[in-house]
């Protein structure tokens, strides 16, 4: 195991990694911007270094500064968390050239699976079902022609997209040219890559993802799946495991997990990753993409599988072989995660100083956060304040436990969205377990 690692991130995920390292006897190095000088991850790490100004480009995306700190501090590996450099092939390659271990898959795998068009082709060659569509579009005219061929509605999607950006829904073929131009421009501005492809819009559908863990010795296991269909503008709000939508379709869960493991093996993946699928009510599922990093919603998997994903992410990065096989994996109980975001009821961003904080407790209640009384929520970064996760023996009890925990959570000084979560958890469609990715759209968007 590494004796010291640098965490190239901030907020709750940096705190999460630091805590795992403390339990493993690994020393930690934090980096921070001037806006985060008083942040919790800075206080918890064994060493901490300021790497620039508050804007991400000046600090958490300052590749040279992070690599310099890693080398001068004697760190042997860099954990990227999620966001920032977590799926950046160039940064992974630079780590390797500097003699540092990037805690994640190889740069080549990140490139292949980060290119969503290439990932589709890789999945297809591995025998994993993909959404009907086409490869990269070359012009607005081709977008119109492909929309007519595939049949509307369709989605135009950036191959380097993420976070809901670079995606346009097309209801009529004649609108595909404009949608292609808009998606391309948005993707170019956000990711520096405007290439787009097209997929059939599958609706109604569920967003189901399978957690995989693979070592460098050819061993691959799947650790249950998560339903992530509660989304607003392609941003996840609530995740749960197991996915209730699969319960009525015998055999689908096993086939989906096998497809995820097959694809993981096919790309030579090492580390923790997630294979995302669209699941239709007729029992068909389709590959969407692979996230080559730790997911925000990893705690729900940890609750139901009993596997600490961060610790195993570090172990396999250090070359350790998994001591368990798929037959040893047992999924038990039901877990739900709510993302607590700094936003107003009108979905406007909020920032400021936390003046009051009460965190709910009790058996199998977890709040992953970097908040404390006096902490400042700056305007420069993602709005995630923390993740509230609960686990119970049944889904019904997990819902009740989460509603209780949300009612107990108190965060003052910054607006947050716990009331929205309580509303969703009381909605009959969500409670039924048969909800789709348009739940927020048709119930709350007005």
For the record, give the distance between the C-alpha atoms at the N and C termini, rounded to a whole number: 52 Å
Number of helices: 15
Largest sheet: 8 strands, antiparallel
Given the helix and strand composition, which structural class is it? alpha+beta
Q: Could you list the spans in which at least 5 consecutive residues all have pLDDT below 50?
A: none
Cα radius of gyration in angstroms: 21 Å
Task: Give the tally of β-strands.
Answer: 21
The proportion of residues in beta strands is 25-35%
**Residue share in helices?**
25-40%
Which word captures the global form?
Answer: globular
Strand order of the largest sheet: 14-13-10-11-12-15-20-18
Description of the structure:
With 446 residues, the protein is of the alpha+beta class. Helices cover 33% and strands 28% of the residues. The strands form five sheets. An eight-stranded antiparallel β-sheet has the order 14-13-10-11-12-15-20-18. A five-stranded parallel β-sheet has the order 3-2-1-4-5, with helices on both faces. Helix 4 packs antiparallel against helix 5 (107-114) and helix 7 (140-150) packs across helix 8 (176-191).
């Amino acid at each position: 195991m590494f004796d010291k690692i640098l965490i190239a991130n901030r907020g709750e995920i940096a705190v999460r990694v630091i805590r795992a390292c403390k339990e493993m006897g690994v020393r930690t190095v934090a980096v921070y911007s001037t806006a985060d000088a008083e942040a919790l991850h800075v206080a918890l790490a064994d060493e901490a270094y300021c790497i620039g100004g508050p804007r991400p480009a000046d600090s958490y995306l300052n590749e040279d500064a992070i690599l310099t700190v890693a080398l001068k501090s004697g760190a042997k590996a860099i954990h990227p968390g999620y966001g920032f450099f977590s799926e950046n092939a160039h940064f992974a390659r630079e780590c390797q050239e500097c003699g540092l271990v990037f805690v994640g898959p190889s740069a080549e795998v990140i490139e292949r699976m980060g290119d969503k068009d290439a990932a589709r082709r890789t999945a297809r060659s591995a025998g994993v079902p993909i959404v009907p569509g086409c490869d990269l579009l070359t012009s607005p005219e081709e977008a119109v022609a492909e929309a007519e061929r595939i049949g509307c509605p369709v989605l135009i999607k950036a191959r380097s997209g993420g976070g809901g950006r670079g995606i346009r829904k097309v209801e009529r073929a004649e609108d595909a040219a404009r949608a292609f131009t808009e998606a391309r421009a948005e993707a170019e501005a956000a990711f520096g890559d405007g290439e787009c492809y097209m997929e059939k819009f599958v609706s109604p559908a569920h967003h189901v993802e399978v957690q995989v863990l693979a070592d460098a010795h050819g061993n691959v296991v799947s650790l249950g799946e998560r339903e992530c269909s509660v989304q607003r503008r392609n941003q996840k709000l609530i995740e749960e495991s197991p996915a209730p939508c699969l319960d009525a379709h015998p055999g689908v869960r096993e086939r989906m997990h096998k497809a995820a493991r097959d694809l993981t093996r096919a790309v030579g993946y090492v580390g923790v990753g997630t294979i995302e699928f669209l699941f239709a009510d007729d029992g068909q599922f389709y590959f969407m993409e692979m996230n080559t990093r730790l997911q925000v919603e990893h705690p729900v998997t940890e609750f139901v599988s009993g596997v600490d994903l961060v610790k195993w992410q570090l172990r396999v990065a250090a070359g350790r072989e998994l001591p368990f096989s798929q037959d040893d994996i047992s999924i038990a109980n039901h877990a739900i995660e709510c993302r607590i975001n700094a936003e107003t009821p009108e979905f406007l961003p909020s920032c400021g100083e936390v003046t009051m904080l009460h965190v709910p407790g009790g058996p199998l209640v977890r709040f992953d956060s970097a908040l404390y009384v006096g902490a400042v929520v700056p305007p420069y970064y993602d709005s995630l304040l923390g993740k509230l996760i609960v686990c119970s023996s049944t889904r019904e009890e997990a819902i009740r436990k989460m509603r209780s925990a949300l009612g107990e959570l108190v965060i003052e000084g910054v607006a947050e969205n716990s009331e929205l979560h309580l509303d969703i958890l009381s909605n009959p469609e969500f409670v039924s377990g048969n909800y789709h990715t348009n739940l927020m759209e048709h119930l709350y968007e007005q």
